[in-house]
Please model this.
Amino acid sequence: MLVLRLIHQLLGRDWRVRLRHIFERPQQSC
Model:
């Protein structure tokens, strides 16, 4: 999947950790 490759290059090797943090963190950051 090209999308995953792009994300991997953009975020680096911590793309998984970043996604996990985004999902774990609540969307109440106003």
The mean pLDDT is 77. The helical segments are 2-11, 15-24. Residues 22 and 28 are 12 Å apart (CA to CA).
